[in-house]
Every structure is written in C-alpha cells, then in structure tokens.
Design goal:
Family: Belongs to the TMEM161 family.
Distance between the termini: 64 Å
Number of domains: 1
Number of strands: 6
Number of helices: 20
Radius of gyration: 28 Å
Strand content: under 5%
Signal peptide: 1-28
Keywords: Glycoprotein, Membrane, Signal, Transmembrane, Transmembrane helix
Helix content: 55-70%
Protein name: Transmembrane protein 161A
Shape: globular
Transmembrane segments: 135-155, 167-186, 225-244, 265-285, 367-390, 467-489
Order of helices and strands: HHEHHEEHHHHHHHHHEEHHHEHHHH
Length: 496
C-alpha cells in the first residue's frame, strides 16, 4: 500500500495552510463578520433616563454603592425604547463565548471538504485503490471533532446551576436510548442500514486475523447483542448532545419564517430546510424509498422510476444537497436569533411596572454574547450529517455516478509483514548514518503500511456502509425528535 503519496502531501499542505491562514483569512470569521448580520446595542443609562423623562443622576453606580445606596436605577417598562443596530464586526466576535472553538471547527470543516474533493478527483483519475483514502480520514476527524464540540456545549449546560438544562439533556438521553433500542431490533427489510452484514463481516475478519497472528483458540468475547447495547448507549449520548441544538433550531426557524413573512420563496426554502432531516429518515426506509422507486405501482403493473443500483448514489446526492441548503440558510437563522433582543424589548413595552436599567442592558447584551453558541448549535448537526455521508461514500465504496454498483465483499485478513533485515556492509561512518536513517524511514513506512493494511482487512467497506449509514440516519432522527418537540414547546407551551 502506497502510504507516502500525493494524498499525504496535499493533506499536510492543507494542514499547514489552515494553521498559517487562520489569523488572516478565516471562513468562520467571514460567516459572522461579513456585514450581513446585525446586532443590537444595549442602551446606556443616560438614554434610558432621557426616554423616561428624568435627569441622569450625577453620581454613577459605583459612587452610589460607596454611599450606601443599593437601589438600582429603574425606568418604566413602557418607554419608547428602540435599540440601535450595528453590523457584527471582528472585534465584537473575538470576545464571544466559544468563538475559538467555533472558528477552529468551521475552518477545519472547510479544509476537510477541500481535501475530500481533491481525493475524489484523484481517485477518479488515478487507480489508487491500494492507497489510504486521506479524504475519508479528514471526514471522520470532522465527525469526531463535531461530537467533541457538542460535548463541550453540553458540559456547559451541566455546570449551569440555573434552569433545568441538565434535566433536559438527561431526559432526551433516556428517550433516545429507548428509541435506539427499538430501531436496532427492526429488520433490514424495513430499515436498510446493513448493520447485520457489517457486524458479521467485522467478527469474521477479526477471527481470521487473530488466527493468522497465532491466536488459534481466540474467539470474539462479545456477541452481537452486546454490540447493539453498546451502540444504543452511544445513540443515547448523541441524543443528549443534540437536545438543545434541536430546540434552538425550532425557535430560530419560527422566528426566521416570521422575519421573512413578505418573502414567500425564502419561507419555502426555510420550511424545506427544517424538514430535511425527515427526508433523510425516509431515504433509509426500504418500503417507502427503495422499493417504491424501483417498483412504483401504476395500475396493475409496476414502473421502475429509479433502479435499485442507482438508488444508493441518488441518496448520497440528496443528502448533500439538503445539507448545502441548510448551510445556505445559516444567515437567516442567525439574524432571527439576534432579533430576539428587539423582540424582548417589544414584549417588555406591553407590560406594566418598572424595570432596572441594568436588567435591560444585560438582557440585550446576553443575546449577542451567545451568538457563537447558537451558530454551533445550528451548524454542528449539519456538519455531522454531511461528513458522515461523505465518510459513507468514501469508506463504503459508493460512487457519485448513476451506474450499477457491486456489493462489497469480505476482504480476507492480511498477515502483517516484517521489515527486511539490514545486511552489514563496508560503508564509512557518514554513509552508515545516512543508510541507517533511510532504513529507519523505510521501516516506519512499512510498519504504517502494514498497520493500515490490517485495518482495511478487518474494517471492510461492508462494515463502514452499515455503521455510517446508521450514524447519518440517527443524527437526523435526533434532530427530528428534538426540533419537533421544540416547535410544540414554542408554539403551544410558551403561548399558554
């Protein structure tokens, strides 16, 4: 297997460019600070006093505390307050919470997409079936980093002492566990993930590989039931991670639709984007998707709309297009979130009584401070679905073309080769040092190549098809559950 090839050079070049260009050119920074998003500035105490029709106290807040006055400055709630808009700038974004995590993940995703596109073109031009697919490794790393980012956000909710964020995450985790256990017992005739054949391929190859390594009496210490229980636990964890992103998506979707009430085309795109996880779910329901398109009933006969061999490629294209649609509508959702500050002010005007000026300032400022958190909650689920689909394509040996595809078989396990022995020669000390260095490099490359060869013999495309198909479907299912609950919460529970 050629490990040190063109792909590795391009991968290292992309990593170097990402590290050097991040302070100067960042897609994540451009997404928030390109002038299309507007935040609302909090009013000063002087402005609030002028709107309330009274003079600003001569002593500031610190002087009042030193003089023993603990009563805050209050103003009537029904004052004619209009917040000032300002475009989000780089200086504003740098102080936001989790901004560095957001910038790194989004930029890494952009470069991972570039490396994946290069590897796809490279595999199309050159027969590189024996090489390691570097683009697939970047996609898998993006999935892992996305999960790590969601874990960081969830740990922030767990540390919070206010509200019931911790209870919400636990409740969605237990609900996801129950749903996952039900899904995993559904037959392949209804949900065509390919998990059964994938696990069978994995266990068979592990036994063959163990016997070739000298462990003749070794057998798999776990059963498929144990693996499925572990997979259900992972599903529960992912469901807990996607609880608040789904709830936030429901809120921003409703606000974005209301914000674009005079633009019906944008509203249609917003509704399509919101329903895209449902389409992803249907694509793996065999009686509705594959069987219906391959044998569509037309009176007493059946018509083949899409051949079964073409359906896998079409499914990949549909998911990618839906993810691109959701990414293209990011600005509308983020602006709908930022408008919550003005929306809260309009709601405050309808109430009676007085409110502290510091409370108004905190409420308006808090909306902008959580902008990157909301951006991550919107983007990370999309990145999970997109890059798990790209991993499914690359590691599952699918094709973007609409030609027939063969079902991948089980690759026999390979014996790990050993490095060739070094023969003594009559070289001088400098030449011996150079030769030793070259031999060490060759031995390292040979060892890595053998390791990847062993992994490819155990983790076959049949296993990757089942695993990443289920992962893509499950992320979409978690989004459907949490976002629909969020719609019910914001439309009915908050109204009552």
């Amino acid at each position: 297997m050629a490990l040190m090839g063109v792909q590795l050079v391009v991968s290292l070049l992309a990593a170097s460019i990402m590290q050097r260009m991040a302070p100067h050119c960042s897609f994540a920074r451009w997404l928030l600070c390109n002038g299309s998003l507007f935040r609302f500035k909090h009013p000063s105490e002087g402005e609030l006093c002028a709107l309330a029709g009274k003079q600003m106290p001569k002593q500031n807040r610190r002087d009042r505390r030193q003089n023993g006055e603990s009563k805050p400055l209050t103003v009537p709630k029904d004052i004619d307050l209009h917040l000032e808009k300002a475009p989000v700038s780089v200086i504003d974004a740098l102080v936001l919470r989790f901004f560095l995590e957001y910038q790194w993940l989004v930029d890494f995703s952009v470069y991972a997409t570039g490396v994946f596109l290069f590897t796809e073109c490279y595999y199309h031009v050159v027969d590189a079936s024996k090489e390691v697919n570097i683009g697939a490794i970047w996609c898998v790393l993006t999935v892992l980093f996305s999960l790590k980012t969601l874990h960081t956000l969830m740990s922030h909710y767990f540390r919070s002492e206010e509200g019931g964020e911790r209870s919400v995450c636990l409740a969605f985790g237990f609900l996801s566990l129950l749903v996952a256990m039900l899904v995993l017992v559904v037959r392949e005739d209804y949900l065509e993930f390919g998990l059964e054949s994938g696990f069978s391929s994995l266990f068979d190859n592990l036994e063959i590989f163990a016997k070739q390594q000298g462990y003749a009496d070794w057998s798999i210490p776990v059963t498929k039931l144990t693996v499925k229980l572990g997979l259900a636990a992972v599903c529960a964890y992912i469901g807990a991670l996607l609880a608040f992103p789904g709830l936030r998506l429901a809120q921003t979707h409703l606000d974005a639709v209301q914000m674009n009430s005079d633009r019906p085309f944008i509203q249609i795109l917003l509704h399509m984007s919101f329903m895209s996880p449902v389409i992803v779910l249907i694509l793996w329901v065999k009686p509705i998707a594959r069987d219906f398109l391959a044998n569509a009933p037309m009176g007493k006969t059946s018509v083949t709309i899409v051949p079964s061999a073409v359906f896998d490629s079409m499914r990949l294209w549909i998911i990618v297009v839906l993810c691109v649609l959701r990414l293209a509508l990011t600005r509308y959702h983020l602006q709908a979130y930022l408008n919550l500050a003005q929306k809260w002010v309009e709601q405050m005007k309808k109430e009676a009584g007085r409110i502290a000026a510091i409370d108004i300032q905190r409420k308006v400022t808090r909306v902008f401070c959580y902008l990157t958190v909301v951006t991550l909650q919107y983007l990370v689920p999309v990145l999970l679905i997109l890059f798990s689909t790209l991993s499914l394509k690359a590691l599952g040996d699918f094709s973007w073309g609409m030609g027939a595809e063969e079902t991948p078989g089980v690759t026999p396990a390979l014996v790990m080769p050993t490095a060739a022995p070094v023969l003594p020669g009559g070289l001088d000390e400098d030449e011996e040092g150079v030769e030793d260095m070259e031999e060490d490099i060759q031995a390292t490359v040979a060892h890595l190549s053998a390791t990847f060869a062993a992994l490819r013999s155990v983790l076959t495309p049949l296993f990757f098809r089942g695993f990443f198909a289920f992962l893509t479907w499950w992320v979409a299912a978690c989004q459907v559950i949490s976002s629909l609950f969020g719609i019910y919460f914001h439309q009915y529970l908050m109204q009552s």
